[in-house]
Amino acid sequence: MNEILDLVGFPAILTLRKVSSNLRDFIDDASPDFNFKSVDATLESKKISVNWILASGNCLVCYSPHENGFMVSCENKEKIVENSHYIDAFYNDFSIVLKNQKTPLERFHFCQSTSTGQVNFLEFFKKKSLKIKTKYFDMGFHNSEAINYVLPCLDSEVLKEIRFFNTTYKNQELNLDQVVNLEQFDNAEKFSVRNFSISTAMLHFCHFTTVNAMFSEITAQDVDLLKISAITSPKFEKFNIKYGIFKEDDELLELLGSPYHPPNSTGRNKKQ
Fold first, then answer.
1. pLDDT tens readout for residues 1-54
2. Among 105, 77, 72, 104, which Cα is nearest to 90's?
3. Distances (CA, A) of 88 to 29, 120, 127
4. Known InterPro entries for this protein (predicted)?
5. CA 210, CA 18: separation in Å to the nearest integer?
């Protein structure tokens, strides 16, 4: 039977898991490793899509409600399962596959559409102790509460880079006061955001080697912290910081000194 599992491949195994409980238990005990490179998961109001990406290609699996059960589609094939919820089906497949993944994913992309109900689609991450091994985590959302459901499920010893983006494509304020206390955030090396303006203090980001983000407000003390990090940290690479408000020009001059202006340039501190 194990040889058959090796031959049929990932899409067929997902289908076989839904044939009977005995076959599902056998497959789960066999723990087949599909050696995925990355996973893209998109959660919508009545549909969950997961694109499993291998070196040889990809497999798109979609789950959606259907009358007294749910419908799952894969490679243009559809199967209807009664007396079961599509969110539970997604989570069972998702957790079993990633639990058996021996090598870390290069990338885990997780996107929550603007129409998705917050708790209904994210609560499953708290049902089991799942630790997803991925080097790069890319998450799109419109409500920052979603982070507290998903980020703790990542293996903090493997995660190296975190990126958040706004699915509304509007520049909204993002509060990460709770997120900065997570070990996943603390152990990561690179951090970036898009279409968000961070309201959390910059001191929580100085441990990263690379940051690309916009902050709602920064102070002269924040800039001084960045200077110290750049000088003292052996892993410091690059901080690309944008800001909405900065009102401490004079204090910044006291901390860093007057800016240097090349000959023939203009500036308020240019020497005559």
1. 555 455 445 656 666 665 666 666 666 665 656 788 999 999 888 899 999 998
2. 72
3. 19, 11, 10
4. DUF38/FTH_CAE_spp
5. 44
